[in-house]
Design brief:
Elements: E1 2-13, E2 16-27, E3 31-35, H1 42-50, E4 60-63, E5 66-67, H2 73-77, E6 80-83, H3 98-103, H4 119-130, H5 147-158, E7 165-169, H6 177-193, E8 198-203, E9 215-220, E10 223-229, H7 230-233, H8 236-243, E11 247-251, E12 257-261
Parallel strand pairs: 3-8, 3-9, 6-7, 7-8
Antiparallel strand pairs: 1-2, 1-4, 4-5, 9-10, 11-12
């Protein structure tokens, strides 16, 4: 079954075409990276996947077998985990705690306002955070946490349900090197221990693309420049075209790639 099936999707803001006739599909259990420079259309594509943005007439979007426009989106979002450093910014509650944000993952809401949290609910949130060595953050306000701590809370939120699709939207954008490596280890463990989970990882850092990612796509100026198996997409020629510079692609013994600007 296709987890993602997008056909002929375009998004236009004013006179600017942000996504141009995108057709893309992802099979269940595939691990996909989406790579592109700033302004390539990555964030817009994520909003399409989550149903927070609609394409122009004539497009078809099916996620987890459900066609947008014919389903209850809030119910579908309960089957999708979204990890983004920007998720908590959508709530207007300045006193939102890590516990509350983690628990909001059950209903795919953006910062549910809880009147009372039961002991059972609090224990579940604590267990999710402790899996990520972050149990001590349970009652901390999200707005005072470091970027690395916020990402741990957001991963715990994503795992509150048993998602079928996980979208990681540049979760490492504000992280330092230790925080980024912790995040990548967590993603690697998810890929290795949850074979049924479809992963979509959005990034602009080539070095963050783990060997566990089976497929990839490169976006440039709102169009798909390359799409397919990891080894077919991650080539020097494709990366030079995507980022507009001469570079050398070096593969490490771990299977990850680094780039050297020539």
């Amino acid at each position: 079954m296709k987890t993602i099936d997008i056909q002929n999707a375009s998004v236009i803001f004013g006179t600017k075409t942000v996504l141009d006739r995108i057709s893309w599909s992802v099979e269940k259990g595939e691990r996909y990276f989406i790579l592109g420079a700033n302004g390539a259309g990555k964030t817009t594509l994520v909003k399409l996947l989550l149903g927070y943005l609609w394409p122009r007439f004539g497009a078809t979007i099916r996620i987890l077998g459900e066609e947008y426009g014919k389903i209850n989106l809030p119910e579908l979002r309960k089957r999708i985990a979204w990890v983004s450093p920007f998720v908590h910014q959508y709530t207007q509650n300045p006193n939102l705690t890590a516990c509350e944000l983690v628990l909001s993952g059950r209903d795919a809401t953006l910062g549910t306002y809880f009147q009372d949290i039961s002991e059972e609910e609090e224990q579940k949130a604590r267990e999710m955070l402790e899996m990520l060595n972050a149990g001590h953050l349970l009652h901390e306000k999200v707005r005072v946490l470091s970027s690395g701590e916020q990402v741990k809370v957001l991963i715990a939120r994503a795992l509150m349900t048993d998602p079928e699709l996980m979208i990681l939207d540049e979760p490492n954008v504000y992280l330092d090197v230790p925080g980024r490596e912790f995040l990548l280890r967590t993603i690697r463990e998810l890929a290795e221990t949850r074979p049924e989970l479809t992963l979509v990882f959005i990034t602009q850092r080539i070095e963050d693309i783990l060997p566990q990612f089976t497929h990839g796509m490169i976006l440039k100026e709102g169009r798909i420049m390359a799409d397919g198996l990891r080894e077919e997409v991650l080539t020097e020629e494709n990366l030079k075209l995507a980022f507009g510079m001469d570079l050398q692609l070096i593969q490490t013994r771990s299977g990850r790639f680094w780039t050297v600007i020539e």
